[in-house]
Specification:
This protein has 270 residues and is mainly beta. Helix content is 8%, strand content 34%. It has four helices and 17 strands. The strands form three sheets. A 13-stranded mixed β-sheet has the order 5-1-6-8-9-10-11-12-13-14-17-16-15. A hairpin with a 2-residue loop joins strand 3 and strand 4.
């Protein structure tokens, strides 16, 4: 079977909620039934057939062609299978994702991987604010899985992050790891201000020296053998992080945020 492909006919003026178009919700549906699914577009409901050309039949392998930044909630609650986005994705990409793989060949908007539980999200371009964060008013962000960003990320990466791994090949904005309670965020590029703000636990692994607040304590240089195991686990990914040449074990370690319980750590390549 060929992949179930949604090819965008025309770009709507309003944002579109794509959450009904995930693998588990399309099982046992005919092509005609899928065409008749209604999507929220601004204040109105439109059918899939009004917005997309459909082809293929494998609902466990979905492709969205000509995608653009107003297609929100792609892969929301995905429970298995693969979604490939050819173009850009809107906000709330992979929200509450439970398993499977989502790959975006362009950029993604804010709140990507928010409250994600398991699975793998790969973004070839840049991503907006609150990557791996919590929805506004909630206290737990990303709870598991792996996110790979090959471009840059906005502010508040991993805000309220509870578990999981975020790997960013480019730069990040302000408040990276803010209010983080566990998990790992690795950043090859530069970081903005207020890194680790109100961080409780978890690890920030950095290639570039950040500007730290006074609430982080310098613990000196360390050789940490577990880092080789961590880098070894990255080899399975299609990313710069899989390159063995980037591995290191000697780091400058900072603990904090001591204005909280202070059990978090920032590890900077020595």
């Amino acid at each position: 079977m060929s992949a179930l492909t949604f090819k965008l006919k025309t770009k709507p003026d309003q944002r579109v909620d794509m959450s009904p178009l995930v693998c588990q919700l399309l099982v046992d549906k005919s092509i005609d039934e899928i065409r008749a699914i209604k999507l929220q577009c601004g204040k109105i409901l439109i059918t899939v057939d009004e917005l997309f050309y459909l082809s293929g039949s494998d609902v466990q392998n979905i492709i969205i062609q000509n995608s653009f930044e107003k297609l929100d909630c792609i892969g929301k609650g995905l429970e298995g299978g693969t979604i490939t986005v050819k173009g850009n994705a809107g906000a709330y990409l992979a929200q509450e994702m439970q398993s499977g793989i989502i790959k975006v060949e362009g950029n993604a908007d804010m709140f990507a991987a928010c409250e994600m539980k398991k699975g793998q999200l790969i973004i070839e371009g840049n991503v907006g604010d609150f990557l791996g964060g919590a929805l506004i008013g909630n206290k737990q962000g990303m709870k598991g899985g792996t996110v790979i960003v090959k471009g840059n990320a906005g502010d508040r990466v991993g805000d309220h992050m509870r578990r999981g791994t975020i790997l960013i090949e480019g730069n990040v904005g302000d408040y990276c790891g803010s209010r983080m309670t566990a998990g790992t965020i690795a950043v090859m590029g530069t970081t903005g201000g207020f890194i680790g703000y109100a961080m409780r636990r978890g690890t920030l692994l950095l290639w570039q020296q950040p500007v730290l607040s006074a609430t982080f304590e310098d613990c000196g240089l360390h050789s940490l053998s577990f880092l080789f195991l961590l880098f070894n686990s990255f080899k399975r990914y299609d990313s710069k992080f899989a390159n063995t040449k980037i591995a290191f074990n000697r780091v400058q370690r900072y603990s904090g945020d001591v204005s909280e319980i202070g059990r978090g750590e920032i590890l900077v390549k020595a």
